[in-house]
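Sorry to interrupt, but I need a hand with the structure work. I would like you to pick a protein and set down its sequence and fold. Please put the record directly below this note.
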Amino acid sequence: MQFSTISSNETLYAMALTRMNFYQPAAILELYRALGSATAIFEHRHRVRDILPDASQRLVEQLAQMDQLLKRAEAEMEYDRAHGIQPLELNNPLYPQRLRECDDAPLVLFYKGCADLNARRVVSIVGTRRCTSYGQDLIRRFMADLRQLCPEVLIVSGLAYGVDINAHRQALSQGYPTVGVLAHGLDDLYPPRHRQTADEMVKNGGLLSEYFTLTNADKMNFVRRNRIVAGMSDACILVESAAKGGGLITMRIARDYNRDTFAFPGAVGAMYSEGCNNLIRDNGAQLITSARDFVNAMGWTDDSTLHEAHRQGIERQLFPNLSAEEQAVVRVLQQQNDQQANMLAVKTNLPIARLASLLFELEMKGIVRTMAGGIYHLLS
């Protein structure tokens, strides 16, 4: 990765300011926006009250010692150059412009990847780290259907267990670029078991963090990174959540940023649907049950692929390669999922022996799954 001299100096000063930004984020951002660059702040570091008369004594003292922070910033820049990481200061055109408008935007982001962080459409998907089979199926179907309706979308999440990792993996499986926002430096990965997925994301998407290397994945860092997940997106979707959780924090931040917020409903009393149901009940998110609901609510129906499909009067066939009998079974499960074989036999008018054979074939094709109690569940 190549850095110009001017860009490197500006980035270096911005990175040095980032070292004090954790404790003085609002003041640093106000100063940055007033002067227009990190370089200008560096040049005025001994005269900060000329620009901010109400600057705190701590900020004045920190800026006066800014030279000492440059050594750490220089070491960070050397590491970034050696490992394909690009620091993006607030004025960099590659910085996520949606996030840039937020009052608490990070002064610098560290990015490793190839996705356009200013893609035409950016969607964040969040939720519990204890994603159930219901949540996994929601994500799988949503991503597959969204791909047909809107082929060009950047998917953002936090690369954590549960909803996050399922969102990233399903995005990759559909050919979507996907970005993971991390709560630590890009020299490490938490959780480590997601390394293979993270490596795939760098090739089709990327990894993003506001933290220097050697920064641990502390609890507070996860809370802070939620504002990046929310701020860089057009919309935020909650898949599953308990009554309390990080996904709900991200949704609150998204609403504060005037982003569109959506949630999938779940069964009454289900632990990991309680947060979604409460949010919908309290008008904190719009209810969606499908990708089409989401696309219509966002007004994204102007997509050329969708228009072409409507023009030709073509409705996408979910299972074009199935036999007529297999299609009949799928249609019944589409109308009402999770049914026992005897009920399927009645509704499809198929002999139970023939139905058992069909269900076995559908399971081998990855279309249905057998659940406890002999219940059959449609996966896609």
About this structure: The longest helix spans residues 5-21. The CA atoms of residues 184 and 215 lie 5 Å apart. The longest strand covers residues 108-113. Confidence is low (pLDDT under 50) at residues 1-6, 306-317.
